[in-house]
Design a protein that fits this description.
Elements (H helix, E strand, L loop, with lengths): L2 E7 L5 E6 L3 E6 L7 E4 L1 E6 L1 E2 L2 E2 L7 H13 L2 E9 L3 H17 L9 E4 L23 H10 L4 E6 L6 H10 L3 E4 L6 H10 L3 E2 L16 H7 L4 E5 L7 H11 L4 E4 L11 E5 L2 E5 L5 E3 L12 H10 L5 H8 L1 H6 L17 E7 L4 E9 L2 E5 L5
Parallel strand pairs: 1-4, 5-8, 8-9, 9-10, 10-11, 11-12, 12-13, 13-14
Antiparallel strand pairs: 1-2, 2-3, 4-18, 6-7, 15-16, 16-17, 18-19, 19-20
Helix pairs in contact: 2-3, 4-5, 8-9
Amino acid sequence: MSGSLTGRDVATGHVVRVEFSDVIGQMAAGSGSSDAYVAPGWVDLQVNGFAGVDFNRPDTPLAEIARALEAVLATGTTRFYPTVITGPPQAMVAALRNLADARGLLPEGDAMDGFHVEGPAISPDDGPRGAHPRAWVRGPDLEEFHRWQDATRGAIRIVTLAPEWPGAPAYIESLTGAGIVVSIGHTNATTEQIADAVAAGASMSTHLGNAAHPVLPRHRNYIWDQLAEDRLAASFIVDGVHLGRSFLRAALRAKGITRSVLVTDASAPAGANPGRYSLGDQLVDLTSDGRVVLAGEDRLAGSALRMDHGVANLVTDGGLSLAEAVTMATANPARIGHVPGRTRGLTPGDRADLVRFTFDAEHGTVQVLETYLGGRQVFRSPFAL
């Protein structure tokens, strides 16, 4: 199987013709002009659910996961990490096994390139804990991690934890020694505990600026400590809800584009209509103004963000160029999150995960026209040229 796409290279603005099979082959100058861009497909390191489908339930049917996959691919996302959050030990393992089975059975299951486990070794405190259920917060346990790996056939790629737990540095060393990305998140750690975690191998901060106390010391706190640590990359939920524009711009300047990653932290309501949905054993509501909150509360519980909207928001709210926004959605998460074959961008030899899209600078919107996964067309918009 082979194909080709013509469009403007986001990085250069020049029209290019991309020839590919399962990997990108020849890149050549294209003829004429084009209103459409060609870029690597988006990479999302944190997806709890999509299109009304909850990835945290062990009993989510295969057909529903397939429907969620179809909806994710339509946003231009080509590789993502289904994310399982804090819950009962057996339920977490069962949810991971269910997703891993779907990965192997579904035609587009390879879009689920690995898995992200967020918790359960997080802060039990209100604020840093976010929407994770307090009852199931517990310390880091290597035996439990191995059960996750067994359930996913060795496909755990990221583990988010709070480094203030006793034994956290040794746990981090064990995981990073096995090639796992350890990310700091949902934490109430001290400066020293964050430094110890980084020394042990932690390399990322999960949705930095969120899952925090509403009031913090203005100078010495765990957000500043992570922003100032150059060995930590950081993911950001750029939906206009989770982060204010001023914080987003300051955080991107502190981290620099190369250490910044766009994530959705999407939960089941993403890509669906306002209403009530599930997040594991919890109920969540998608409000009319686009917030996902625990039912009956005002606590955020993931987001309703799509990656194509996130790319546009990085330009309009983050003040980035389109090329920088695309880098935060493609090469950066692939490199930082250990997604193989996706770290070099629109380059021969990388996987042929491609998206063709238009960008309306006046209105700040991205419209996905086509999505290719490993060289296979998996989405085509009726508006595709």
